[in-house]
Write a structure and sequence with these properties.
Elements (H helix, E strand, L loop, with lengths): L4 H16 L16 E2 L9 E2 L6 E6 H7 L4 H4 L6 E4 L8 E4 L11 E5 L2 E2 L5 E2 L2 E2 L10 E8 L13 E7 L7 E9 L4 E12 L2 E12 L10 E14 L2 E14 L5 E2 L17 E6 L4 E6 L4 E15 L4 E13 L2 E12 L29 E3 L5 E2 L4 E27 L2 E21 L1 E5 L7 E2 L2 H4 L7 E22 L4 E20 L9 E19 L2 E12 L3 H6 L1 H5 L6 E13 L3 E16 L8 E17 L4 E17 L15 E12 L5 E11 L2 E2 L7 E2 L2 E11 L4 E8 L7 E3 L9 E4 L4 E9 L1
Parallel strand pairs: 6-11
Antiparallel strand pairs: 1-2, 3-10, 4-5, 6-7, 8-9, 10-11, 12-13, 12-45, 13-14, 14-15, 15-16, 16-20, 17-44, 18-19, 20-21, 21-25, 22-25, 23-24, 23-28, 25-26, 25-27, 26-29, 29-30, 30-31, 31-32, 32-33, 33-34, 34-35, 35-36, 36-37, 37-38, 38-41, 39-40, 41-42, 42-45, 43-44
Length: 769
């Protein structure tokens, strides 16, 4: 499993050094890389040059995002060094990992911001991670992604990855875009955006999209559909600026789950289809029956509204306030595989743990023969050799609401800059779950449920169920201070401290029997800090060193999964320590950002809701590389690479000690070339692509099953026909590689896995004005 990561790191570093050692062309006409500006990671959101920042941050412009052609928000995170994003589950519900931080799924160490304010205080709740709450469209100006760095002190104190999406703003010039997109999987999408001036120093930007498709994995119906509307109002002041925005989204798609790894099943397979999307489940002590549409999959139906105020006063004072209000539903409907596929004939011989025959096939009481198995919808007879699999019909109804405000005040005192901040967030979540609801289905695209199998026909005898109704609310109050001292013209020192109070009130009715069996009233404080030093070697190169100590605070699911520890007095606050050493080089036509990191993270993992948690400590060390070189004949090369090593050093399960952390590759690399060809009349064609290669990974912390590495190729072309009219063609997974992003997280030894998306093509025709 272990690859020779040191050799790979040396090879990549040598290649980059040779490229960046070349002389910069004198006649190259382009924006200087070292003048790139970032606003994420500073206590007041004050803009700084990227090359001056004392932390690892990636920024992607709107055009860079278009070239990557992400299928979802989480798909975009693959362009960030140190991040492993499993976006193969559809438009929502991704698994996102950062720098070897441990996790079983979702994204416990990811925060998604819009205009500098978190969309939702908890980074992850079961069946909800932050990227589900955000959709990409033409209203996004750029994205910034901060790893480690000052994260434990500012904003919501996320120690891992914070991604910040900045919206486009209006100006004195009225401009906009209209774009139609289609695909080889019958995508129909219209995007539009227009911006301009309402009055003197008052500007607007308005935009959104409408979209519908059967999905990249064809479900036989329009399984992905949605729309979004965004309004951003900007007011320029004599001493600053104010932004107020609202974004309303209703977008969902089928939840793609691990599939059986057997002949006849490939990366285009999806269990959901017209024969099974309408299904009835039983829940609660009385076996109440209800029908749901599992074609709704996962998504977000809600809104985010907020604003940002940034002001400068006399004598070096700066004021900043960033806030938002989020409310909506993030429901999940899925057909979840359970165990290995079997032939119908094998069901008659299945036994329980004690060796007792389960008699899953029905027997005719007169003849003693097995009754033919039929499709519950089609009535079709299925042969004894037909492959079937237990599929759980899971329903999660989730309603969330939050209000967040981040206020800070900065004073410049000669060489010392002092910031005082107050972060507050009130949040709540109401859940209703019915998990399990097992039933045997045909292993085929849209494979239907079966009758004349006793497990299916007698609902009380089939598999397991986990039902709950819960309601929880919480609050976070944090005071933070940041000091920045300019020791010399080249050396800057900084220190940040955060004192946080975290309160949770939570009640759980497991089994839906009206009994609250897990009540929680929690009130704890914690302190986080960061310290860094930045030394500029030249005006466009430097080094930095940083250390921080942060925390992963407990939210609702942490108490449900670790309730016995909570009762025993455990505060459930998990410590995260990080160390970073970075090098930065940026010039007119080349740049290199390299960061070495080491971290130690406490964590809690649960294979299935309701099961006991495993407590562990994981160490990770690695190197992140982000390099860019632009040649004077129109060719640009970008390299994004991560090499890391993880190890579980402590665990309540001693068999895990010494293992690698699950799901995360030892190395990954993305090489993105683009070539611009100028046409007669001044217009141009740009050809671009991305080569992605990843290492093997383990399915689980037990390191029992291996996910093989793979290499994936994407291609694209952009043709500027006129100054206004343009065409873009994108091909994802050109060679139709069948790489796996995960196995079966509930049963690592079962032959199930989730493929990356199959080959697909998108064509867009745009009009800019």
């Amino acid at each position: 499993m272990k690859s020779n990561k040191l050799i790979l790191a040396i090879a990549i570093s040598t290649a980059l050094s040779n490229a960046w050692a070349q002389e910069t062309p004198d006649d190259q006409e382009q924006a200087k890389d070292f003048e790139q500006i970032v606003v994420t990671g500073t206590p007041t959101g004050t803009a700084v040059r990227k090359v001056d920042a004392s932390f690892a941050i990636t920024n992607l412009s709107a055009e860079a995002i278009r070239k990557l052609a992400p299928k979802s928000t989480a798909d975009l995170f693959k362009a960030v060094p140190g991040v492993w994003s499993e976006s193969s589950g559809g438009v929502a519900g991704a698994n996102v990992f950062v720098r070897g931080f441990p996790g079983t799924g979702d994204a416990p160490f990811l925060t998604v911001q819009m205009e500098g304010a978190p969309l939702f205080q908890p980074p992850t709740l079961s069946f909800l991670e932050n990227s589900t709450l955000f959709r990409m469209d033409e209203t996004v100006a750029y994205m910034e992604a901060l790893r480690g760095g000052t994260n434990p002190v500012i904003s919501n104190g996320q120690p891992g990855l914070t991604t910040n999406f900045l919206l486009k703003e209006g100006s004195e010039v009225t401009e906009g875009v209209f774009k139609y997109t289609t695909s080889d999987y019958d995508l129909q999408r219209v995007d539009a955006m227009v911006s301009g001036a309402l009055a003197d120093d008052l500007y607007y930007m308005i935009g959104g999209y409408v979209s519908s498709s059967p999905g990249i994995r064809d479900a036989g119906f329009n399984s992905e559909k949605g729309h979004q509307f965004t309004l951003n109002i900007t007011k320029e002041l004599d001493n600053g600026k104010m932004n107020f925005y609202t974004r309303v989204t209703d977008d969902h798609g089928v939840w793609y789950l691990p599939t059986p790894l057997v002949s006849g099943v490939d990366n285009e397979y999806t269990q959901i289809g017209t024969l099974n999307r309408q299904a009835s489940i039983q829940y609660g002590p009385d076996g109440t029956s209800q029908t749901f549409d599992f074609g709704n999959g996962r998504g977000w139906d809600g809104s985010v509204s907020g604003g940002k105020i940034q002001l400068e006063f006399a004598d070096g004072w700066q004021f900043s306030d960033r806030f938002n209000y989020t409310k909506g539903d993030a429901n999940t409907y899925g057909m979840v595989p359970d165990g290995a596929p079997l032939m119908i004939s094998e069901l008659a011989n299945l036994t329980d743990a004690e060796g007792k025959n389960l008699n899953l096939r029905n027997i005719d009481p007169v003849s003693g023969d097995f009754v033919p198995v039929k499709g519950a919808v089609s009535g079709k007879n299925y042969s004894e050799a037909t492959l079937v699999q237990q599929v759980g019909r899971w329903v999660v109804l989730k309603e969330i609401e939050s209000f967040t405000n981040d206020l800070s005040l900065t004073k410049q005192l000669d060489a010392l800059k002092v910031t005082l901040g107050l972060y507050t967030s009130n949040f709540e979540a109401k859940d209703w779950w019915s998990l399990g609801n097992q039933s045997y289905h045909v292993v085929a695209p849209g494979g239907e449920n079966l009758t004349e199998i006793s497990c299916n026909d007698n609902k009380d005898s089939c598999g397991w169920n986990y039902d709950l109704s819960s309601t929880g609310d919480g609050s976070t109050r944090a005071f933070y201070t940041a000091l920045e001292y300019k020791a010399t013209d080249d050396l800057t020192l900084d220190l940040g401290v955060r004192r946080e109070n975290h309160q949770i009130n939570y009640s759980v009715d497991e089994d839906l029997d009206g009994t609250i069996n897990k009540p929680v009233q929690y009130d704890e404080d914690t302190t986080s800090w960061t310290a860094g030093a930045n030394y500029m070697l030249t005006d466009n190169s430097g080094v930095f060193v940083r250390v921080n100590d942060g925390s992963k605070m407990p939210y609702f699911d942490d108490f449900r999964d670790n309730y016995s520890q909570y009762e025993a007095g455990n505060d459930l606050i998990f410590d995260v320590q990080q160390y970073e050493l970075g090098y930065k080089l940026a010039a007119d036509n080349y740049s290199l950002y390299a960061t070495a990191y080491f971290n130690e993270v406490e964590s809690s993992t649960v294979a299935l809701p309701g099961q006991p948690a495993t407590l562990s400590v994981t160490e990770a060390k690695g190197i992140e590389l982000d390099g860019n070189y632009s040649f004077d004949f129109g060719l640009n090369l970008n390299l994004n690479a991560t090499i890391q090593d993880t190890e579980i050093t402590k665990s309540s399960n001693p068999h895990l000690v010494g293992n690698e952390s699950q799901r995360q590759p030892g190395w990954q690399m993305r090489l993105t070339p683009s070539y611009e060809i100028e046409l007669a009349g001044g217009n141009f064609v740009t050809l671009y692509g991305t080569l992605t290669s990843v290492d093997d990974r383990w399915i689980s912390d037990d390191n029992l099953g291996e996910l093989k590495g793979y290499t994936k190729v994407d291609l694209g072309a952009y043709w500027e026909i006129t100054d206004q009219l343009n065409v873009r063609l994108s091909v994802d997974n050109l060679t139709d590689k069948e790489g796996l992003t995960e196995g079966d997280p509930r049963n690592p030894t079962a032959p199930n896995g989730r493929y990356i998306m199959p080959r697909s093509m998108r064509l867009s025709i745009g009009y800019n004005f």
